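To assess whether ligand presence alters the predicted conformation, the chain was also submitted together with zinc ion. Input:
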Amino acid sequence: MYKAKAYAASSPSSGLASTSITRREPTEHDVQLDILFCGICHSDLHQARNEWSGMMPTVYPCVPGHEIVGRVTKVGSAVKKFKAGDLGAVGCMVDSDRTCPECKAGLEQFCPNFTLTYNFPDKHTGGVTYGGYSDSIVVDEHFVLRVPSNLDLAGTAPLLCAGITTYSPMRHWGVTKGSKVGVVGLGGLGHMAVKFGHALGAHVVVFTTSPGKKDDAIRLGADEVVISRNADEVNRHAGSFDFILDAVAAVHDINLYVNLLKRDGNLTMVGAPAEPLPVGVFGLLFRRRSFSGSLIGGIAETQEMLDFCGQHNITADVEVIPIQKINEAYERLLKSDVKYRFSIDMASLKSE
Ligand code: NAP
Ligand code: ZN
């Protein structure tokens, strides 16, 4: 065991502050990384403030962060994929059982025995896992991804959650050249969905509550932008979408979007508001529409997404901040005031 620097929440209302945590020394299959950048996902905020208490109650102290890019410092004797000095990346999962049908299908995110990167029982330490708001992390090599060498590292970190969470459902639902794709909510996830939809050749329409994001949406690759508070403007697209990805972090009217789908169109929720969303069944019956959810993506698909980003030169649009600005960043995230992901420069933790 060794001591690592970190930022942790000590209660739902405490905010985050500097602390010291215990991590394991790398075992034979482990990779140890010095963390260079960590993105701030809205899930970090939900979890730090115990907003998902019904589903995943928070254990304090809680060290969030699951959009990690780092430099390998040490590897175990059986590690094949990495050596000291390489870049490596870690997303939302750090372990799974590798034997269940989900793992065998490369869908570790659905393994009943997986381990999330933070706030999850840690099989090695007996405590809970601690995430990327830290100077280092130790992870089994299966859950460490290779980073394409041409990408900016601060903008690469958010690909590990915002990237894969939007790429995976788009691939699953067959988004391709000529598809009409809606993206609801232009935040960290939403702006990645726009980039992927555009790169896959789809006609992308952004639905935003923020009129000030209109020009950005077009710059990011949207073909059209609709201000979602204007129902007439929204309803002009009735019955026309193949696929809609909803990445909103709060309760909102989902039926507005169901009605925009074509026959057999699908609306996938990736946003995770704590409260249930009422769905009008008639919207689904007519035109055989479907409403579903999606959770991050498997490890092989995460690597595929990173390689796709390397080929298409795609990274997140980030505002780089020092860790000391974390509490301010959370408040701004709640006001949709970030273009479009905060990425923490972890060198700032050295001064703590
Ligand atoms: P984010 O950066 O805060 O973006 C959320 C966006 O939703 C905002 O930028 C805003 O976009 C829109 N929005 C916020 N409040 C709204 C409201 N009251 N009504 C309508 N729109 C609203 O958050 P994120 O990091 O992208 O995460 C989004 C959600 O996905 C969170 O709930 C997070 O926990 C969840 N998530 C799920 C997965 C998964 O695997 N399924 C993975 C990661 C994150 P506009 O300004 O454009 O309206
Ligand atoms: Zn996330």
